[in-house]
Amino acid sequence: MLCFMNFTCKNGIALRAVVSLILTVSPSSLILTVSPSLPGLFGYLTFGNQVESDILVSYSTNSMLMLVGHICITFVAVCSYPVLNFVAR
After folding, report:
1. Measured between alpha carbons, how far is 24 from 26 in angstroms, rounded to an integer?
2. What is the pLDDT of residues 61-71, one digit of tens each?
């Protein structure tokens, strides 16, 4: 799937050089890899082996920090859907 997305990015870049492709795809791939991994890492570091499969259930919902975390994870889910849907079309 990532190869197809890279091909699509290459077609949309004005200067179709390998360097342009690397400078475009590398940051986006890094963001798409790190953003879902951080909540999982912090959930495991907080709760160890007792972490729930849905880490948002493990945390209290009374904290403003947790509300920000819920909003960030929702943002990641909303932004990743169009990327995956575009590849599937």
Report:
1. 6
2. 788 888 888 88
Domain ranges of the chain: 2-88
Tell me if 76 sits within 8 A of 35, measured CB to CB: yes
Q: Could you give the CA distance from residue 55 to residue 42 in angstroms, rounded to a whole number?
A: 9
Global model pTM greater than 0.70: no
What is the three-state SS of the chain? CHHHHHHHHHHHCCCCCHHHHHHHHHHHHHHHHHHHHHHHHHHHHHHHHHCCCCHHHHCCCCCHHHHHHHHHHHHHHHHHHHHHHHHHC
**How many Å is the Cα radius of gyration of the chain?**
17
